[in-house]
Design brief:
With 338 residues, the protein is mostly beta strands. It contains three helices and 27 strands. Helices cover 9% and strands 35% of the residues. The strands form seven sheets. Strands 5, 6, 7, 8, 9, 12, 20, 23, 24, 25 and 26 form an eleven-stranded mixed sheet that branches. Strands 13, 14, 15, 16, 19 and 27 form a six-stranded antiparallel sheet that branches. It has a two-stranded antiparallel ribbon with strand order 1-2.
């Protein structure tokens, strides 16, 4: 700015404007990160070690299935958690199949009960499914008092199919059987003592072929498939298939349980002696999984306890998660391996 004083000029500096103070910028809050999804809880089937969608377990269904040549291929065996095969009159075999998690479209052919079924039903607290039985067996079932769905007296949960000749033409489905049991308040959450399971293969003798020398036409082979890590099942050198899907039955664990067999005084319609198989006590056993044999013993102190399979050091033998087939054989019979 120029200021005139007489003849002198004085140059004065222009006033400097005061700086404008701006508010400090406020930091934007970070975008909220969604919480990670909860880790899904995986429950395991206590008998097979397979995943379950929920922890609650209803009682197992123990279904009696025939093994007559005219009944093959059977339906539902590949979906059973545990399958027992045992001798009956005339040295033919029959199955007791336990279902817990899977619900096959069809199961059968359903046939009559045997004395050994009472031991198996008691071991697993199962609902027994069968079509009648001989007088001594039916008397024992009535005395035991466990739930049983007997198609001979009430066929509402069963159907006969035209594609099979009688008597090997009786079938049902697991959902139908469950509904029948539910109507009678039998489908209750069950406390099941779990079997030991382990993913890692055991150490032991390498065995890829197991032969159970039942009579001709009922002789069994299990051939280990290295690529699938399961045993393919054969009957009389023929692939044993499941009619549900027409696929060969594959087994994760095979057990050979050597147990006392004795003939009783009771006879079937053809005059053959009824066989009593004792599953309480202890004896020799062989457990096969992952192509390995683990020799050991079976121990079951009482009817209400579950059978334990122990190695030669007395430790529980862990099963591979998956289905289990147990071959009940006389003490005098020897499974062949290779």
């Amino acid at each position: 700015m120029l200021l005139l004083l007489g003849t002198a000029y004085v140059l004065l500096a222009s006033p400097t404007p005061s700086p404008t103070i701006l508010p400090s910028p406020t930091a934007s809050p970070p975008a909220s990160t969604p919480p990670p999804p909860p880790t899904p809880v995986v429950y395991a089937d206590p008998l097979c070690g397979r995943p379950l969608p929920q922890p609650g377990l209803i009682r197992p269904l123990g279904v009696k299935i025939t093994n007559e040549p005219a009944a093959r291929p059977q339906s539902g065996l590949s979906q059973a958690c545990i399958v027992y095969e045992h001798l009956t009159e005339g040295d033919v075999t029959r199955f007791f199949a336990l279902f817990i998690t899977d619900e096959p479209l069809e199961v059968g052919p359903v046939r009559s009960a045997r004395l050994v079924d009472l031991d198996l039903v008691a071991e697993f607290n199962a609902i027994f499914v069968h079509w009648g039985g001989g007088p001594p067996v039916m008397a024992a079932i009535q005395e035991a008092g466990f739930p049983n769905i007997d198609g001979y007296w009430d066929s509402s949960a069963f159907q006969r199919v035209s594609r099979r000749p009688a008597p090997s033409n009786v079938y049902s489905t697991i959902p139908v059987l469950r509904q029948y049991a539910s109507q009678r308040d039998w489908n209750k959450t069950a406390e099941i003592q779990p079997l030991p399971h382990q993913d890692a293969p055991p150490q032991g003798e390498r065995v890829t072929l197991i032969t159970i020398p039942y009579r001709s036409g009922f002789d069994v082979e299990y051939r280990y498939d290295e690529s699938r890590r399961t045993y393919s099942r054969f009957i009389h050198d023929t692939p044993h298939k499941d009619a549900n899907g027409e696929q060969q039955i594959e087994v994760a664990n095979v057990v050979v349980q050597y147990v006392p067999h004795r003939e009783t005084d009771f006879r079937d319609a053809y005059g053959a002696a009824t066989i009593d198989i004792d599953l309480v006590g202890e004896g020799r056993a062989q457990v096969f999984r992952d192509g390995v044999l683990v020799p050991g013993r079976w121990v079951r102190p009482s009817l209400g306890e579950k059978t334990r399979f122990l190695d030669q050091a007395g430790r529980p033998i862990p099963f591979k998660p998956g289905n289990i087939w147990i071959q009940l054989v006389p003490i005098s019979m020897e499974a062949k391996t290779g």
